[in-house]
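USER: Write out one fold?

ASSISTANT:
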Amino acid sequence: MPSTVIVGAQWGDEGKGRVVDLYSAEADLVVRFQGGNNAGHTVEVGNLKFAFHLIPTGILRERLCLIGNGVVVDLAGLLKEMADLEAQGIRVRGNLLISENAHLIMPYHPKLDALEERSLGDGKIGTTLRGIGPAYVDKVGRRGIRVGDLAEDDVFRAKLEGNLREKNLLFERIYGETPLSFDAIYQEFQSYYTQVREMICDTSLVIYNALREGKRVLFEGANGALLDVDFGTYPMGTSSNPIAGAVCTGAGIGPRQVDRVIGIVKAYTTRVGEGPFPTELSGDVAFQIREAGREYGATTGRPRRCGWFDAVVVRKAARLCGLESMAVTHLDVLSQFERIPVCIGYDLGGRQVEHFPNSLAQVGRCRPIYEELEGWRSDVNGVSTWQDLPAAAQRYLRRLEELTELSIELVTVGPQREQTVYCSSS
């Protein structure tokens, strides 16, 4: 391994948590480097189902897990996630560290998130209303409160007082809302601090020392490359950088410390929230994919928008992230179809384009150009080797490799750990 980055190569929800769980078996450290609890991973082990929002899924294998400085942390959500996992028999304390440089999501951030979304009306972003965007705004605006500030009472007090003066003016004078109480928030975060203080440290230094010692480090991104704040369908995306380059600033390592990058893709495409989606389906086919793939958000429960595989999207993610290989998830969902279209390019105003446009308006005008492939119409849930996959499924996967110029490392054919086909010898 020694240093591997795993990123989503579509619009998120590609099954990163499941794949991180698989690769964690060979890791010593697992590090989350961006995003917040707007992202969600679901991992099934036996008859247990585990939901993750901030904690890396490597915790299931008792690996040392780090929440990096690039993450915005909702401490209430984190403590609930810890309690839920511990109630399921997972040892979290002693295996989890939090960067002292990570920024906190404060109670005024979700409130602002909801008010801003409401004010946008039909032009809303479709956020999860978890306060992620407003927390990153405060971080970039140099008025954010960091996890390490909780250890310095005078610093925390001064920052909270200053932020509340500004935010309460907005709530009262712009939105006509009730102001928030300094005392209530202060006491709330003092309580949180007593519960997490032993986990707070310089995680960048922990990673640096681990790499120097030759330990294997796995970096886990949230969201997907096409939601990136710089290169995604801006502004219909997330507020951070889910692309692989963000691991340097989000975890505190140098670019020469990254050995390889793996992209995670579904065998089809999904998207949550607003924004253009060229291969989006409606009607019975979309319903069939959604139900077979259980395409409902792990964080919000919202039904995901579903469409056919889009090679244009994955090619952009591969270019942005420096992908050399990919893991394909949910292949079993496509077993119900006799013919399976794959998007190989777009029609944009009568001309064929093979690269994903940067303009949101242009993406909205793109119409998919499909190549139709033969389906396999047989159950693949019990398949464990490449050779045992139906011939049509093998041809489908080979075509994805050709269209994206990426080799496939593994394919998942069901929700369980063992429902994985490794393709290194295929």
